Amino acid sequence: MQIDKQTLANIAHLARLQFNETQTEQMIAEMSKILSWMEKLNEINTDEVAPLIHISQEINVLRNDEPQTSLNHEKGLANAPKRDANYFRVPKVIE
Predict the structure, then answer these.
(1) In the predicted model, what is the mean pLDDT of residues 73-94?
(2) Measured between alpha carbons, how far is 7 from 28 in angstroms, rounded to an integer?
(3) What is the three-class DSSP state of 83?
């Protein structure tokens, strides 16, 4: 498959990209290379290869989600460097 200027313009519009004339020619060349590499994959016989759901066989071990006691309001604010009556005090970062 070859990429022409109209196809590249459609892809650029979808990706919200803009190219000048030089960049357009470079992108057409690069995308044509990528598509030729992808076409090489069609030459590989994958009939007996099972599809993968995950790349590895690792299983994520999660703990059970059980309710636990949490800090009360006063303990949560106990080690705050600066605090108001009910809140942490932090330096102003937005003007």
Answers:
(1) 88
(2) 9
(3) strand
